[in-house]
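Narrative summary of target 7.
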Amino acid sequence: MRKTKRNGIARIVGIVSLLTLASTTFLPVVSAQMQPWLQEERMRQMYDRQQLLMWQQQEQMRQMYDRQQLLMWQQQERLRQMYQR
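Modeled conformation, tokenized:
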């Protein structure tokens, strides 16, 4: 029974040490390969945010222009109605 327990513990320790070794060699390789991708992704996200902000500003300007045009039309319409009376 004790030999089986020791073999099980030895097997677990061996697996853990192999996993530790694999992770310490694998992670830096993956990390180094992901750096350019992460930088490109950040740049893409910054570009997307900038495009969204520009669109929002253009939309605000368009809405302000539309409101101004509506106010001018309303004012002209009031004047026209006043002169017709």
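The mean pLDDT is 87.
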